[in-house]
Structure formats: C-alpha cells, structure tokens
Design goal:
With about 100 residues, the chain is an all-alpha fold. It has one domain. About 85% of the residues lie in helices and about 0% in strands.
C-alpha cells in the first residue's frame, strides 16, 4: 500500500502504471489500493489547487521547481509514520506478552 501511495504523489514523469500493474499481479486488496490512490491523488491535487489559488500564475513556476521535493518529503513522512507505527505495535505486543506471562 505504501508503494502505491508514494507513486501517486510523485510528479507525472514517474511511471505510475508500473505500480498499478504490480499491485494487480500481486493481487493487492482492491479496497486498500483504492484508499492509497484516492488519498495520494487527493493530497497531490489539493496541494496543487492550494498553490494555484494562493499564488496564481506563479504557482506553475513554484510547483515545477519544488514539487518533486514536496512529494519526496511527503513520501518520506509516510514511510517514517509506517515505521514508527510498526515499532509501536511491536512494543505494545511485547508489553502485553510480558503482562500475560507475569514477568
């Protein structure tokens, strides 16, 4: 799910179709796939729309210059969030196991 989400955030020259085909080959859950695509595209287009309203004609120049970095920063944030979440789940499971054994 993370790879599809990141692929939806990256700028147009990035090969998004490769991730769509790969998700199909690996029988990725349709629900999770749709959440990743809708969430990623919604963030991307809302960001572009915000820049268009806020900066007008200059938005095109700003997005052309900084969009890859914005996309990579968001993708990095998503990756960090997933890693932290997995770490916290692992710690919670360890604490729960310790409480069950009474040690």
């Amino acid at each position: 799910m993370l790879s599809v989400l990141v692929a939806t955030l990256l700028p147009p020259p990035f090969p998004f179709k490769l991730f769509v085909i790969t998700a199909g080959v690996f029988r990725f859950s349709l629900f999770r796939f749709m959440i990743a695509v809708i969430g990623g595209r919604a963030f991307r287009f809302l960001l572009e729309g915000y820049f268009a309203v806020r900066y007008g004609a200059e938005a095109k120049v700003i997005l052309a210059k900084y969009y890859p970095w914005i996309g990579l920063a968001f993708a990095g944030g998503v990756i960090v969030f997933v890693i932290v979440r997995k770490f916290l789940k692992r710690e919670a499971a360890a604490v729960e196991q310790t409480l069950e054994t009474g040690s």
